[in-house]
Amino acid sequence: MKQRSMSLVLCLLLAVLSGCTGQKQSVSKTDFAFDTVITLTAYGGVDTAVLDEALALCQRYDALLSRTEPGSDVFNLNAAQGEWVKVDEQTYALLERATAYSELSAGCFDITTAPLTQLWNFKTEQPRVPGKEAIEEALTKVDYHKIEMRDGNEVRLNGGAQIDLGGIAKGYVADRVAEFLKDRGVRHAIIDLGGNVLAFGGLADGRPFTIGIQDPAGERGTLMATYTATDLSWVTSGSYERYFEVDGQRYHHILDPKTGYPVQNGLASVTIFSSQSVEGDALSTACFVAGPEKGMAIIESQPGVEALFVLTGGEVLRSSGLENDENLKIMAAGQ
């Protein structure tokens, strides 16, 4: 068995193609939360204490939204066995966003896939392919309609459902961190939560950021596109990020909520460009599961959201808003 995991943090590199290394007044802080490395970088003379406070904010959200941390809202919901649970207002707001993206994508994005993700357990050192009966049993518990919400920030999960916010939480938190930094006077920053990246204000000298997008068929750091922007969120979901191989068959971590198996529809990666990171987080998964045609239709229905799809053969598809966008430079993928 062969196993591989690739960090989007390094794949994007924030591509410090932007010449960020030349920013004399930049300051960066790194921590670990949401089961990944998080890095906050600010430009233009910023008190490091502000970044420390922002990292502490990330830790508070991690403690609130973690599936495995006893006492978190998600842990309590999953353990409640159908009983009503009062959750934090931020958790409630995030669940509302999550179910809205489930509706938008006809269930291609679904936070009730926790029984499936636990079954496949891609994070273990020796992952294995679950049995057919086990997958079928897990599927009976997967359906976002099993999430019930009522006034007073109360939520319950019906029919054995369990939730995992890993497909949307980092995007939501990135947006909250951006709000916090702006409120504290930060004008130029990059927020990188394990590959969910949100940048605002450009560089302190007025130049925009230039980001790089990983070639899903290439080695780490091999780019298939670059994009130049001042204010932007970009999130990539790809079959190359985490997978294992058994008898020559690759099994990646993006599971289809309808079949219980890794998605196989010709897509290698989906990158979403948007103003809100929560959009990119949810839509990158939704579109990957939906496939090239339906996924692009979802993007075209969302104002201010653009996407790049890379097919397994190397072909690159772009949403209509990127067709004549001079900020986007596409190299050959899959070379």
Shape: globular
Number of strands: 17
Total number of helices: 9
List SSEs in N-to-C order. EHEEHHEHHHEEHEEEEEEEEHHEEE
Q: Whole-Å distance between the termini?
A: 26 Å
Give the low-confidence spans. 1-21
Largest sheet: 8 strands, antiparallel
Helix content class: 25-40%
What's the CATH class label of the largest domain? Answer: Alpha Beta
Overall mean confidence score, pLDDT: 91
The CATH topology of the largest domain turns out to be: T-fold
Class by alpha and beta content: alpha+beta
The number of distinct structural domains comes to 2
CATH architecture of the largest domain: Roll
Strand content: 25-35%
**Strand order across the largest sheet:** 2-3-7-8-11-14-15-16
CATH homologous superfamily annotation of the largest domain:
ApbE-like domains
**How large, in whole angstroms, is the Cα Rg?**
19 Å
Please write out the topology.
Layout (H helix, E strand, L loop, with lengths): L1 E4 L2 H5 L14 E7 L2 E7 L5 H18 L7 H7 L5 E2 L2 H16 L9 H7 L11 H8 L7 E4 L3 E4 L11 H15 L5 E5 L2 E5 L8 E6 L8 E7 L2 E7 L3 E5 L2 E4 L14 E8 L2 H14 L1 H9 L5 E6 L4 E3 L9 E3 L5
Antiparallel strand pairs: 1-12, 2-3, 3-7, 4-6, 5-6, 7-8, 8-11, 9-10, 10-17, 11-14, 12-13, 14-15, 15-16
Helix pairs in contact: 2-7, 4-8, 7-8, 8-9
Note down, in words, how this protein is organized.
The protein is α+β, with helices and mostly antiparallel strands and 335 residues long. It folds into two domains: 2-62 and 185-330, Roll (T-fold), CATH 3.10.520; 64-167, ApbE-like superfamily (T-fold, Orthogonal Bundle), CATH 1.10.3980.10. It has helices spanning 8-12, 48-65, 73-79, 89-104, 114-120, 132-139, 169-183, 277-290, 292-300, and strands spanning 2-5, 27-33, 36-42, 85-86, 147-150, 154-157, 189-193, 196-200, 209-214, 223-229, 232-238, 242-246, 249-252, 267-274, 306-311, 316-318, 328-330. The strands form four sheets. An eight-stranded antiparallel beta sheet has the order 2-3-7-8-11-14-15-16. It is globular and about 55 Å long. It starts with a strand and ends in a 5-residue tail after the last strand. Mean pLDDT is 91; it is low at 1-21.
